[in-house]
């Protein structure tokens, strides 16, 4: 496989907290508090970021991504709400993965508020109601002093949404992470949709990115999004380079292009590679046959 030059992650020159050192509670701006859930791991990084959006003096709040069903985490979120003297108007999940949704029913019951989701299967009615509230691109929730707008960002999952704040910040869920790059895992992930969603974020021009995992990104958000696009193009070029030497299974492709990565992460890398291969198949650049072998079109 010929040597390809990987794009440079602009975050390598930023003063970001090392992995594992993200504060438990962080006030990010005048309306946003991040509460770190206790579920750190290879795929969740420091843990799931739960956000409380509560304009000072409004008495209202929105919770984004409840995270794992952990009593201590719920207590920490409740303490933040109490410090803002705010009641919960709504709970939002950015997508259906369990590290974001597991506590949705627990939070809805405790805070007496509905959980909103793009996929109605993951929306939780408010106590005493049977109505499931869904999010669509452009759905807006108005709080006194701040409004939130849902931005459809499918790709990581087909039901993924980001949340735009009136402050100019964008809560990105797992579409853009504070560290590394997001997994776009087949079959739920769709690489072409994911790339389109990255362009959607670029067009928004957010002032800050508040991700579902990892630290906030404020130095140059556009540079991070551009890097994500470059990194995906780089991986596709690597796949093409492997196949130029002959047919290979997705696993064999992973073993070559992710050789420097911890093999414990190869399963996720293979699912992401399968999503990239599916995109190349749709473009007519490769064939993926019934024996799980991928080859270039001649």
What does this structure look like?
- The structure is a single chain.
- The strands form 3 sheets. A 6-stranded mixed β-sheet has the order 1-2-3-4-5-6. Strands 7-8-9-10-11 form a 5-stranded mixed β-sheet, with no helix packed on it.
- The model has no long low-confidence stretch (mean pLDDT 95).
- It contains 7 helices and 13 strands.
- The protein is α+β, with helices and mostly antiparallel strands and 298 residues long.
- The two termini are 18 Å apart.
- A hairpin with a 6-residue loop joins strand 3 (49-53) and strand 4.
Rounded mean pLDDT is: 95
Q: How far do the termini sit from each other? A: 18 Å
By CATH, the superfamily of the largest domain comes out as Ribonuclease Z/Hydroxyacylglutathione hydrolase-like
Determine the strand fraction and express it as a percent band: 15-25%
Please list the strands of the largest sheet in the order they lie side by side: 1-2-3-4-5-6
| Residues in helix, % | 25-40%
In short:
This protein is an alpha+beta fold and 298 residues long. Helices cover 30% and strands 19% of the residues.
What order do the helices and strands come in, and which of them pair?
Blueprint lengths: L24 E3 L4 E5 L12 E5 L6 E5 L6 H13 L3 E6 L5 H4 L2 H8 L3 E2 L23 E4 L2 E7 L8 E5 L3 E5 L17 H14 L3 E4 L9 H24 L5 H8 L8 H17 L3 E3 L5 E3 L2
Parallel strand pairs: 4-5, 5-6, 10-11
Antiparallel strand pairs: 1-2, 2-3, 3-4, 7-8, 8-9, 9-10, 12-13
Helix pairs in contact: 4-5, 6-7
Provide key terms for this protein.
Metallo-beta-lactamase, Chain A; five-stranded mixed beta sheet; Arc Repressor Mutant, subunit A; 7 helices; 298 residues; 19% strand; six-stranded mixed beta sheet; alpha+beta
């Amino acid at each position: 496989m010929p040597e390809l030059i990987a794009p440079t992650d602009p975050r390598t020159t930023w003063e970001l907290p090392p992995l594992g050192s993200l504060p438990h509670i962080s006030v990010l701006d005048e309306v946003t508090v991040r509460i770190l859930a206790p579920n750190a791991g290879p795929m969740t990084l420091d843990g799931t970021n739960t956000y409380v959006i509560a304009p000072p003096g409004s008495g209202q709040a929105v919770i984004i991504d409840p995270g794992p069903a952990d009593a201590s985490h719920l207590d920490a979120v409740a303490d933040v709400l109490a410090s803002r003297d705010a009641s919960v108007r709504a709970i939002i999940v950015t997508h259906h993965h369990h590290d974001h949704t597991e506590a949705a029913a627990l939070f809805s019951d405790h805070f007496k508020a509905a959980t909103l989701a793009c996929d109605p299967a993951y929306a939780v009615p408010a106590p005493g109601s049977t109505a499931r509230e869904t999010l669509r691109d452009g759905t807006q929730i108005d709080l006194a002093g701040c409004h939130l707008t849902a931005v459809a960002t499918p790709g990581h999952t087909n039901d993924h949404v980001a949340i735009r704040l009136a402050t100019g910040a964008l809560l990105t869920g797992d579409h853009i992470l504070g560290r590394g790059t997001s997994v776009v895992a087949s079959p739920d992930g769709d690489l072409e949709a994911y790339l389109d969603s990255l362009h959607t974020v670029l067009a928004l021009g957010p002032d800050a990115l508040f991700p579902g995992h990892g630290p906030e990104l404020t130095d140059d958000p556009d540079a991070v999004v551009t890097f994500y696009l470059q990194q995906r193009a780089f991986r596709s070029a690597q796949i093409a380079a492997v196949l130029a030497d002959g047919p290979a299974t997705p696993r064999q492709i992973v073993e070559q292009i992710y050789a420097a990565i911890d093999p414990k992460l190869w399963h996720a890398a293979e699912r992401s590679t399968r999503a990239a291969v599916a995109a190349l198949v749709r473009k007519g650049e490769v064939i993926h046959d019934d024996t799980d072998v991928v080859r270039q079109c001649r």
